[in-house]
Amino acid sequence: MGEQTGVSLINTLLGMKIDIHKRRPVLANNTGGLSGPAIKPVAVRMVYQVAQAVNIPVLGMGGIINGEDAIEFMLAGAKAISIGAGNFMNPYTSVNTVKEIEEYMKKYKIEDINEIVGTVEMN
Ligand SMILES: Cc1cc2nc3c(=O)[nH]c(=O)nc-3n(C[C@H](O)[C@H](O)[C@H](O)COP(=O)(O)O)c2cc1C
After folding, report:
1. Cα of 38 to ligand 1 centre, how many Å?
2. Per mean pLDDT, which range of 2-16, 42-56, 70-84 is the poorest?
């Protein structure tokens, strides 16, 4: 069997919400994991930096809710992506994302999605 090691990122970022009337944290555990679109810029930056630093496949996630988001992660260096919170926002998120990736591939005449992985050109 071949080498199957890879790395996935990012997990949630630790957040906190305070009930201003009770002056107490809303979450029973005081803090909790923040996921979804709010964390996407941090995730894209981290996927880019990690992809530059390792020679194993990177799976990117964190705020992906559509094909444009998925493509962004792939350009940053993700060979695969995953969707967590987006599925709670709309159960068709993953199916729609696949369709939108295919549309992007048609538009830019991309035959194999691997062609675009890590091809972002830095300013
Ligand atoms: C409901 C829920 C449960 C999760 N459970 C886990 C978990 O058990 N272990 C883990 O490492 N990450 C867990 N995560 C984090 C996700 O794997 C993912 O890294 C994070 O949510 C960012 O992606 P997203 O914005 O697409 O949700 C969970 C996320 C959500 C929304």
Report:
1. 14
2. 2-16
- Residue 119 CA to residue 116 CA, distance in Å, equals 5
Q: Domain residues of the chain, as ranges? A: 35-116
Compute, in angstroms, the gap from residue 83 CA to the centroid of ligand 1: 9
**Best probe residue, ligand 1, of 11, 27, 44 (max atoms within 8 Å of C-beta):** 11
What are 53-86's pLDDT values in tens digits? 999 999 999 999 999 999 999 999 999 999 999 9
- Give the closest residue (by CA) to ligand 1 atom 9: 11
Distance from the CA of 69 to the center of ligand 1, in angstroms? 17
Q: What is the pLDDT of residue 1?
A: 53
Architecture per CATH, domain 35-116, reads as 3-Layer(aba) Sandwich (3.40)
In the chain, DSSP assigns E strands to 7-9, 13-15, 18-19, 24-25, 32-34, 58-60, 80-81
